[in-house]
Write a structure and sequence with these properties.
Length: 468
């Protein structure tokens, strides 16, 4: 019995020895006879090596293409100098103008850019108030005053790195603003501005798109690659009227800053701490003092966001519009440059009108110098255009002269509009009318001719706006 146990123990030890040898052989990556073990080892080594190479490659790419992230802006103390010498009532008036500072991601980025000495461009687009009509000089307008504050507060004096563009044009709504945005803002800025103020709350009463053009203009600006900050500014008439209730949904939808001059001054006017004579030069336009109040409202906005923590993320732009986005990507078409694919025969509209309004901030510059004019004795041949488009707007000259006549507009052979060039109140200003508004682009034939009985009168087509 003892001998049997001894042999069993001996057999067990021998078996354990064989098992140990087998495991050692399998663990050895150099044993060529262990094909399966070698394949497993090669697979693991290959995987580790590949992963190492990928990691190394990633590190190389990061090293080559890494962009140093912009430092998180550190809030500054609120600039109390904007209140210097002002009463508490005045301060409250200015504070009341700020409906919301919105998402400050973009404006903080622009402010920090200016502080670093990099070039920052501030653009203003709007009507006659933005143009500084009735101010004693263009430099007394709210736009220039607020630009000057930004330049002195955040720019570097020795570098002159803050630039100014004023695209105010009297008597024009956002319908025309969106058409000329590329020409009058981007063209002069040689690119998208860093900050854009949009002021059409008292000009859009005749907007044929009921806010669609306004939102489309805002989107055209917001979607630029450099992510400009867009601020909605709501001016006010002496009647205490504006269209901010119609336009505010756009600001709320994209979380944009909104400044209301109406909210600032109406309460003060009603409390008789401010008079119409102090603020308004006429029924529509501010005095120098009124422009100063508007500028102070913008200074308050700048100072407020400069003292805030930066929003962690940018605004969200979705396909869903607050009012409408039918005119995103709208293009200006005039006689200076006709793109391929568009065919125009001016017919009897073959002259160029030189009696036009000018742009105050660009002395001597006509509003739409490249136009098509029909004059007395020009004949009766129609203006025709073949164009592929989704939307089409016409810009024409409006005045009060008896020599101006009426045209009929036909699209694809059907009478679409009759337009009177001498409507009351015109002063050679551009006026915009919607001709076509469809969901998808198509080829269209446009014919414009003097209406019956108006063949010997004048009419000027200044430009078109269209989307493809």
């Amino acid at each position: 019995m003892k001998r049997r146990c001894f042999y069993l123990i001996l057999i067990g030890v021998f078996a354990l020895g064989l098992l140990a040898c087998s495991n050692k052989t399998n663990d050895s990556p150099t044993d060529g006879n262990n094909t399966k073990g070698q394949e497993n080892t090669d697979f693991n080594d290959s995987s580790d090596s590949s992963e190492t190479k990928e990691n190394a490659s990633d590190l190389e790419e990061v090293g080559e293409d890494a962009i140093t992230p912009e430092p998180t802006p550190v809030p500054d103390p609120f600039d109390e100098s904007i209140w210097e010498g002002r009463t508490d009532e005045y301060k409250d008036m200015i504070k009341n103008s700020l409906i919301t500072s919105g998402n400050n991601y973009r404006i903080k980025k622009a402010i920090e850019k200016a502080k670093r000495g990099e070039e920052v461009t501030i653009g203003y687009i709007g009507g006659s108030i933005t143009e500084s009509f009735n101010a004693s000089s263009a430099e007394k307008g709210y736009a220039y005053l607020s630009y000057l504050y930004f330049k002195e507060a955040y720019g570097l004096a020795d570098m002159d790195n803050v630039k100014y563009i004023n695209a105010g044009m009297s008597g024009t709504p956002s319908t025309l603003g969106m058409i000329r945005y590329d020409r009058d803002i981007i063209g002069y800025a040689e690119g998208s501005p860093d900050i854009l103020f949009v002021e059409f709350a008292v000009n859009d009463g005749d907007d044929p798109t009921n806010g669609d053009a306004y939102e489309s203009l805002v989107l055209n600006a917001l979607q630029a690659e450099n992510q400009p900050a867009v601020i909605l500014l709501f001016a006010v008439f002496q009647s205490k009227w504006n269209l901010q209730d119609r336009l505010m949904p756009v600001g709320n939808h994209y979380n944009l800053p909104m400044i209301s001059i109406k909210d600032a001054v109406v309460h003060e006017l009603e409390a008789e701490r401010l008079t119409d004579k102090e603020f308004f030069s006429d029924q529509y336009h501010p005095t120098d003092y009124g422009h100063g109040i508007m500028a102070d409202c913008i200074k308050y906005y700048f100072s407020t966001v400069n003292s805030e923590n930066a929003s962690e993320t940018d605004i969200t732009i979705s396909d869903q519009a607050a009012i409408g986005n039918s005119f995103v990507g709208v293009k200006l078409l005039d006689a200076s440059s006709i793109p391929g694919g568009i065919t125009i025969n001016p017919g009897s509209f073959s002259e160029t009108d030189t009696i036009l309004g000018t742009i105050r901030h660009l002395p001597g510059t006509k509003t739409f110098p490249n136009n098509w004019k029909h004059s007395t004795g020009s004949g009766t041949e129609s203006f025709t255009m073949d164009i592929n488009c989704k939307n089409l707007l016409i810009v024409y000259k409006s005045n009060s002269q008896a020599s101006s006549g009426k045209v009929d507009v036909y699209i694809d052979g059907e009478l679409t509009k009759s337009i009177l060039g001498n409507q009351g109140g015109g002063w050679n200003n551009p006026y915009t009318m919607l001709l076509l508004n469809e969901d998808s682009p198509a080829n269209h034939n446009v014919e414009i001719k003097m209406a019956e009985g108006n063949e010997e009168k004048e009419f000027t087509i200044l430009a078109f706006g269209y989307t493809e």
